[in-house]
Design goal:
The protein is an alpha+beta fold.
């Protein structure tokens, strides 16, 4: 028994020595901030509201490439260097997602966000025609405006409230828009803000983040015995049921199965069902892409809108310039239905949105897995199977690329002064955001309508925004402001 104990102790010691050796020699040519030998940088990130700032400070201090160690995995590399970002983002080979995206698969399956390279390339080619077509975007402006009118009514009821968390209202507006434009269905999300589907989406986001930051939950065998796994099972059941109800409703609607229908002019869901009927997709493929799109399409856009409104509330002179542009375009502020051309002419509002997306990028960090050794020069190699983090927030807040990075200065985006691959709210290259044009158009429509109806002001009492990196950028204490009814001319 004594001998067996000695052997067990020796084995454990050998394993620990190997782990310590591996984690301190892996990627030795890339700098690593000081950390615990066994716990790595975990203790640096106990306070979620400080993670982004700590990592940003590291990238400024140690440069655009640095090692971060979060046990039990090997150290990964955090990247803000624009030249390295360009190499990775423009490559048609380095398009694999990081292994951590597997935590989304119980929910999103093998959709565009999580699928392996071959499947992603096939689905991306098939789905791209759904997005960015001028004829579709022009049709969508009426949908943006219609649901914007409901949002204005909801906000109008809060005019006398000096402390509003704007994000939940914007999120429901965005969900309404997404269902109507991409699914051809109305869900009345703004009237049912406490719906089980929305709660389940939020619960899944929390669960994925918990798995990312809790070492033992990274192991599937252990995770299955946790409370989070039970919550995940319940949430996915609700999300899947919601999907099949969508399919049932869609198939019962008139005109869904017209044989002579032009696929390019249909909704996203129509296209998916047509592909399914042609035996190119399974119903699981359809479900995975719908779940991926419903999450990615509404949450990121809502985040961008809410943070832009927050920034305008805190910068009255910039808000005034936005209003001047609106008056120049419309002649009066109470015009209700801007055309596609009107939205395209909102050039100043566009750079205001870009600056808000720089300061508050909806996706602060994204991950890739290196498929082939990437040689960066000076003896630095990103080896095959390495997980790298493209730190978009850190890149946007680096004074090397954006002087006075914490200041809200839309004029940065006047002309062509932005260094390539430093402004990445929609990523870039082959795996960029498929719905960029749609998102910008929706953001313009929503923000234009709100500022023409309300004067945005800081919340009273003022508060300190506490940013946390979840699946999208979030504020732990809400995105808060106050509004006053704007006097119409």
């Amino acid at each position: 028994m004594f001998l067996a104990g000695i052997i067990l102790l020796a084995t454990i010691s050998a394993i620990l020595c190997y782990i310590i050796f591996r984690n301190n020699t892996h990627l030795i040519n890339i700098p690593k901030p000081p950390c615990s030998i066994l716990l790595g940088h975990i203790l640096h990130f106990k306070d979620s509201t400080k993670i982004l700032q700590i990592l940003t400070n590291y990238t400024i201090q140690y440069g655009g490439l640095l090692r971060i160690y979060m046990p039990p995995t090997k150290p990964s590399v955090l990247i803000t260097d624009s030249e390295v970002l360009q190499v990775l983002l423009t490559s048609n080979k380095e398009v694999a997602k990081a292994k951590d995206y597997n935590f989304c698969k119980p929910w999103m399956g093998s959709g565009l966000l999580t699928s392996e390279v071959d499947k992603w390339k096939c689905h991306r080619r098939i789905l791209t025609p759904c997005f960015g077509r001028l004829s579709l975007l022009k049709n969508f402006t009426d949908v943006f405006d219609s649901f914007g009118n409901i949002l204005i009514q909801k906000l109008g009821a809060k005019v006398n409230n000096k402390d509003i968390d704007i994000f939940p209202l914007i999120k429901m507006y965005s969900l309404d828009v997404l269902f109507e434009t991409s699914m051809g269905l109305s869900v009345n999300a703004q009237e049912d803000i406490e719906g089980e589907y929305v709660k389940s989406l939020e619960r899944m986001c929390e669960i994925v983040v918990n798995r990312l930051k809790t070492p033992y939950k990274r192991f599937n065998f252990i995770y299955r015995f946790t409370e989070d796994y039970r919550k995940q099972t319940e949430a996915i059941k609700i999300i899947d049921s919601f999907f099949y109800n969508i399919i049932k409703t869609k198939r019962q609607s008139d005109g869904t199965k017209k044989s002579n229908q032009n696929v390019l002019e249909t909704t996203f869901l129509d296209l998916l069902l047509k592909i399914y009927e042609d035996d190119e997709f399974t119903m699981t493929d359809v479900k995975d892409e719908v779940n991926t799109f419903l999450f990615g399409g509404h949450d990121t856009t809502a985040t961008g809108i809410a943070f832009t409104l927050y920034a305008l509330a805190r910068h009255p002179k910039i808000q005034e310039k936005v209003i001047e542009e609106q008056l120049h375009i419309f002649g009066k502020l109470n015009k209700n239905s801007p055309s596609y051309e009107d939205l395209q002419n909102m050039k100043y509002l566009e750079i205001v949105i870009y600056e808000a997306l720089r300061l508050y990028p909806p996706i602060p960090i994204t991950g890739r897995r290196i498929i082939n050794d990437v040689h960066l020069g000076n003896g630095v190699i990103l080896p095959k199977n390495l997980n790298v983090c493209l730190f978009i927030y850190g890149c946007h807040h680096n004074p090397k690329y954006f002087p006075e990075p914490e200041k809200f200065k839309p004029e940065r985006f006047e002309g062509n002064n932005i260094l390539p691959y430093t402004f990445l709210p929609f990523s870039s290259g082959p795996r960029n955001c498929i719905g960029k044009k749609f998102a910008i158009l929706q953001m313009k429509s929503c923000i234009s309508k709100i500022v023409r109806n309300f004067d945005l002001q800081p919340s009273d009492p003022e508060y300190i925004l506490e940013l946390v990196p979840r699946m999208t950028l979030a504020a732990r204490n809400g995105i808060r402001l106050s509004i006053k009814k704007r006097t119409s001319d």
